[in-house]
Amino acid sequence: MPRYAIYPLILIFIGIAAISVGRVDATAAQSDLPDHVLEEFGYPPEVPDGALSEDLKAAIEVAIVGGATQVPWGQAQADALSVLVEANDPRLAWIMVDALRYAWDRWRYELISDAAASLLGLRFQTLDRWSELTDHLIAWDIPAYEGYLAHKRAIFLHFGPRWDRLFVEGDIDWRHVSWGGVEIDDRPYGETDRVCPCIPAIDNPEVISASEATWIADDAVVFGIAINGEARAYPRRIMEVREMVNDTLGGRSLGIPYCTLCGAAQAYFTDDVPDGVQRPVLRTSGLLIRSNKVMYDIITHSVFDTFLGRAVTGPLAELGIQLEQASVVTTDWGTWKEAYPNTTVLIEELALGRDFDFRNGRDANGPIFPVGDVDPRLSVHEDIVGVITGSGQPVAFQRSVAMAALKNGADVVFDDIRLILDAGGVRAVSEDGSERSSHQAFWFAWSQFHPTTELWSP
Questions:
Q1: Neighbouring C-alpha atoms within 13 Å toward the C-beta of 133
Q2: pTM of the model
Q3: 162-186, pLDDT tens digit by residue?
Q4: DSSP states of 359-423 as a string?
Q5: Which of helix, strand or coil describes residue 327?
């Protein structure tokens, strides 16, 4: 970076240092945010209303959009960043944190992050400035400015042009979308044997019988699915590498995403769509929303809310497509095959020679991407079994407590939902014993996508 461009920035951030001596004084702002948010993140800054001026829009183009995609920085970027800081508009911090995700050099990263901290009234407490800023923006629910998506789209498409058809308006909160560090998986259906610099999905995986599966240990974690009398185990070892499977089981078509970051293996029926609509083929986009993978349909490029199974952009969103969910039982291979002796299981080769354990390794100390505030009733990585009642009420069962109660012969019931033991795990049924979709996940993920969730207690 030319040194002449640094000096005016130093003068800017002397002023920033005077501002960023801590969070906004609680007496200077009032908020209706929950107490746990205020206790952890402090009070939010005041946010102005209305559209940005043309001067501010031009400054964003130069300092942030251009500043993220052009090298090196120069006087023009420095002057434009000064304009943004002087605006004192916290909404501008959103596009700044987007630029930080691609700020490869230290100078650019520090200058843009200092500018964002000034707008939010923060002093950094950690070395991970991007996460700290994003967590505050999410927790405080700072709004985006009009035209934000166009600026964000320009930054992301510069680095990932194949996201072009995904970055469109829809029922999706683009503020919360970030890059997960990998490219989009846009391989056509049936061509998942092709190598890609992505998280590689599998279409129609090869399977073997339980007796043939000598490669998998009895204590290995599997995600078990049983549909119309046909059972299949999806080993976590494979799902941590692949994260998405398009399969057929019990005569039904399934899309099975596994989000390593939120501990959730889900299964969606992809064959229940209107006449004339092609079965969605699900892929991993390489994008995240609050540490949850963003999946999309390779046929229409419609983006889905992975956790809810609802199309949020594109043609399938226009049709109001909501995928029905099947139950997934998280258990161990030995118990699953004993309960379902005719089960099949994916072949070892699909693990691509890898053997990760993200839960006890990479993610052992909590989420590695920003999630904002977390409902404090449980710890962030507490395992829950999530279900939606017949009246539409989300409910979370703390897995360890529910398992203990069931093993002691107690009933685990909430409204019209009952949990039962199944193959070493738990699943949900209705009062008449019929299947109800359920899956296991980390508490932070379930509670942020179901903010009105009830928490079962014995």
A1: 31
A2: 0.90
A3: 999 999 999 999 999 999 999 999 9
A4: TTTTTTTS-SS------TTS-TT-EEEEEE-TTS-EEEEEHHHHHHHHHTT---EETTEEEEEET
A5: coil
